[in-house]
Amino acid sequence: MQISSTGGISTFVRPTAADYGSVVQQIYVAYFGRPADTNGLASFSAVFAALGAPTTLKGLMTAYENGFPTIRTLIDGFGTSPESNALYPSGDTLGFVNSVYRSVLGRTADFDGLLYWSRQIDSGLLTRGALALAVASAAENNVLSPDSSIFMNKVDAAIRFTENIDTINEFTAYDGAAASQLAREMLARITLEPANDTVINNALTAVVNLAFPPAPEPAPAEDPYMDSYSMSYFLSESIPPASPDLFIP
Question: Of 44, 75, 158, 227, which one has the fewest beta carbons inside 10 Å?
Answer without folding.
Answer: 227
